[in-house]
Amino acid sequence: MSSKTLQYEQVALKGNITVPGDKSISHRSVMFGSIAKGRTTVTGFLLGEDCLSTIDCFKKLGVEIEVDGTNVTIDSPGIDNWMEPKEVLYTGNSGTTTRLMLGILSGTSLHTVMTGDASIGKRPMRRVADPLRLMGAQIAGRENGQYTPLAIQGGPLQAIDYTMPVASAQVKSAILMAGLRAQGTTIVRESEVSRDHTERMLRQFGANVTVKDGVVSFEGGQELTGTHVNVPGDISSAAFFLVAGAITNNSHIVLENVGVNDTRDGILQVLQNMGANMTIEIDDANAAEPTATIIIGTSQLTGTVIEGAIIPRLIDEIPIIALLATQATGKTIIKDAEELKVKETNRIDAVVNELKKLGANIEATDDGMIIEGPTKLAGASLKTYGDHRIGMMGAVAALIADGEVTLDDADCIAVSYPTFFEHLNSLSK
Ligand code: S3P
Question: Distance from the CA of 170 to the center of ligand 1, in angstroms?
Answer without folding.
Answer: 5
